[in-house]
Amino acid sequence: MKIVLDAMGGDHGPKVTVKGAVDAVNQYGVNLILTGDEAKLNEVLKQYNYPSEKIEIVHCGDIIENEDKPVAAIRKKKDSSMVVALNLVKDGKADAIISAGNTGALLAGGLLILGRIKGIDRPALAPVFPTYKGTSVLIDGGANADCKPRNFVEFGIMGSIYAEKVLGIQKPKVCLVNIGIEEGKGNDITKEAYKACKNAPFNFQGNVEARDIPDGYTDVIVCDGFTGNVVLKLTEGVAGTIFKILKEELTKNPIRKLGALMLKSGLRGFKKRFDYTEYGGAPFLGVNGALIKAHGSSDEKAIKNAIRQAKIVIENGVVDNIKNEIKDLGADIVE
Amino acid sequence: MKIVLDAMGGDHGPKVTVKGAVDAVNQYGVNLILTGDEAKLNEVLKQYNYPSEKIEIVHCGDIIENEDKPVAAIRKKKDSSMVVALNLVKDGKADAIISAGNTGALLAGGLLILGRIKGIDRPALAPVFPTYKGTSVLIDGGANADCKPRNFVEFGIMGSIYAEKVLGIQKPKVCLVNIGIEEGKGNDITKEAYKACKNAPFNFQGNVEARDIPDGYTDVIVCDGFTGNVVLKLTEGVAGTIFKILKEELTKNPIRKLGALMLKSGLRGFKKRFDYTEYGGAPFLGVNGALIKAHGSSDEKAIKNAIRQAKIVIENGVVDNIKNEIKDLGADIVE
């Protein structure tokens, strides 16, 4: 098994990606390829101890920046760390790719270089969503702003496979994000999506209202990419604002400060539950290869966890499982 | 000025609505009409002291239940507390109506009995959204799951008037909920909505990502009713889950319990910021009359605050301001 990491991607560059890679090698014994500027990568690598045969560098002279137009960047920057990494997976020289770089470019690269799995109309981002009860998977996290009913069926299938194989949830419960519980509620697209999901080959349990998502009401949260992106970002925003207000309230006077000190470990445990760096990145499911998008602001722990996640995705044959499930489905979901 | 309260509406019935009414009369000196079962209302009323000339009862023999089909209920239950209350506003005998009853029925009743303001295609719910910086108004909170571009312009106009006249925000900043900041981001409908809003007569400041809503990035949060409902309910769900986890963490051992005790007032202040009962209800803007939907689970404080809110809506001529603004706009927004 070999995992390729776009070592130039992300807000913090090689300093963080290389450290995450070293930690993953030491902790999980994985074999890695790093794509990027060889001199820069070696400069960071030489600071650490690790089994050197486990990290290979493939030099690339170019970088896709966050400001680059996705499709144009993939087409023109052939020697970028991201495109080279994608081609390594396409050519069978690596089993999975991780990048914390330009999201749009990575998704475009997934579609253009790896291609879609036959039978999948719309690959989708499937980040883990931390809940009160544990973790759910949300799909689509933002790859497809507008969706057709059949796309929701694909999301349900892929999300179920990911929840089962990677999160270890048996017979995961799948629900459609909607503004009411009963069938017939919602906007035009969710009404159609509900009908399509009723006959789909997964454990469909109807609608979930947004209010019940954080508690862990459903294992797989299915929605279009617009709604999914709103759900992810709003959750981040609400949690961030609550932490900010909480901190202010708890430091207003000396008694409160003392109280807060006594609660330090409790508050730390509390905050950890919402820490995205614990959960790796978001797989882009439905492309013909294992592709994980790490958060742009990933630190070394997030990179390390994304590598562990890629390892689990490979070990459990997530991509092949999706291929088989979609093949078995045959013409059923083709409109 | 006279405000009519559907005293049978809401999960807790007259016990709560009547107490809220009495408190509002004593605190704000308003004149109220209560619609509902006279005997039941008097039974609660007689427990309290208040200037009796300020509360009038209009007896109704029927109630619209939460399970009733909205349009059918409005058409058939002519003697229900909700329909009678709506007719009092229509006939000029009251200046505003408040109900905590069946939301769908209340919105249908608003449209069927009060009617739309000329030039408004889609009236919308406009609840207050508590933020870090203060309060924003979200429109549409769930009345219109599918929207046309012109509806977003109407929402922006009505939301701006409400933010200015009721929340006291000068030249309120209006943003469109979207999944990216730049123009051209989003799904098909938000791309069109953005174009329509650019030329609209309010302080349009582009897109807002859901992440930035809780901090108070924008005064008026414009979106379709599906997105709005997801935003409201998810905020409630995330906050609820965080409070639950926080409570667990803070009571895990005696030291933490002691620390939590020292923080009691701080935690209370913190929770109060997210307490919907502080903010009254959601006005249904765009109908030809002042209509406020109170939360189904409103307690007496929420009812009292909804009455105060109705008073401010009337005093500041919100309905007339919308009429004038839409009239001035003329043919501009008619497709």
Question: What can you tell me about this protein's structure?
Answer:
Two copies of one chain form a homodimer. By secondary structure, chain A is α/β, with parallel strands linked by helices. The first copy, chain A, has two domains: 1-120 and 286-319, Isopropylmalate Dehydrogenase (3-Layer(aba) Sandwich), CATH 3.40.718.10; 122-279, Isopropylmalate Dehydrogenase, CATH 3.40.718.10. Chain A has twelve helices and twelve strands. Chain A has a seven-stranded mixed beta sheet with strand order 3-2-1-4-12-11-5, sandwiched between helices. In chain A, strands 6-7-10-8-9 form a five-stranded mixed beta sheet, with helices on both faces. In chain A, strand 6 (128-130) and strand 7 (135-139) form a beta hairpin. In chain A, helix 1 crosses helix 2, helix 1 crosses helix 11 and helix 6 crosses helix 12. Chain A is globular. Chain A starts with a strand and ends in a 6-residue tail after the last helix. Chains A, B: Its EC number is 2.3.1.274. Chains A, B: Homodimer. Probably interacts with PlsY. Chains A, B: Pathway: Lipid metabolism; phospholipid metabolism. Chains A, B: Belongs to the PlsX family. Chains A, B: It catalyses: a fatty acyl-[ACP] + phosphate = an acyl phosphate + holo-[ACP].
Keywords:
homodimer; 335 residues; alpha/beta; Isopropylmalate Dehydrogenase; five-stranded mixed beta sheet; 12 strands; globular; phospholipid metabolism (chains A, B); acyltransferase (chains A, B); EC 2.3.1.274 (chains A, B); Phosphate acyltransferase (chains A, B)
